[in-house]
Amino acid sequence: MYWNGRAEGCVPPEGKKYFPAAVPIATQIPHAVGSAWAEKRKGTDNIALCFFGDGATSEGDFHEGLNFASVFQTPTVFFNQNNRYAISVPFEKQMNSKTIAQKGLAYDIPSVRVDGNDVFAVYFETKKAAQRARNGEGPTLIEAVTWRTGAHTTADDPTKYRPDGQGEDVVNPVERLEHFMKNNDFWDEAWVEQIERELTDEVESAVEAMEQYPKPNPEDLFDHVFENMPKQLSEQKQSYLALLGRDS
Ligand SMILES: Cc1ncc(C[n+]2csc(CCOP(=O)(O)OP(=O)(O)O)c2C)c(N)n1
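That is the input. Now the predicted structure with thiamine diphosphate docked in place:
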């Protein structure tokens, strides 16, 4: 729903505790710190788990968020997906830091760098960090080093900026887990087929349900940004609706 431009896609399903996706890079970081701090003050054992890319760590929001989390010892797990590119900008051109994890140390936040394509390492470190947060031991930063296998978006063409062959040696984490399971006799073909069938059905019925909805309302792009719409935005809205042949 979200990726089809429907505002309903911003509403978490019943019983799930998550925030809508945030398109402005890194704004989710102070949100995660604030919500974790609120939970701490309320005395619950809820924690906030926050995901962001390597590019997000070049934003002020990342640094403000980490500083605040450290000062107030909020139960926040910062999970960095370092896929080595912020769209077309490689890690090395974007920062002089050798790692993302070292940025956490500046804020005295326990920080760890893991192979992000190793399912077990990611699970183990995330679980440990969540436990620390729940125990009142404050925030953790996890840097999971991974690789973006495709383009950033449908408007992006990585062949324009990535050297030929770069990333070819990266093993897909799902395939890696499959090898591990097969080598250790955990692989059950019938079970795998059943899971694949169930998940395909689930995804197909979700797509069908989404397709029943009318097309997104173009006014939603403008209406939920400010409580009182500024003049410039209002003008943009009018001209966009006029372009679509509609009046407001
Ligand atoms: C504040 C802000 N500036 C610029 C953009 C445009 N933009 C979209 S994705 C992106 C790169 C993000 O890089 P990274 O955090 O490494 O995430 P990933 O490449 O893994 O998606 C940029 C600059 C944006 N969405 N928000």
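The radius of gyration is 21 Å.
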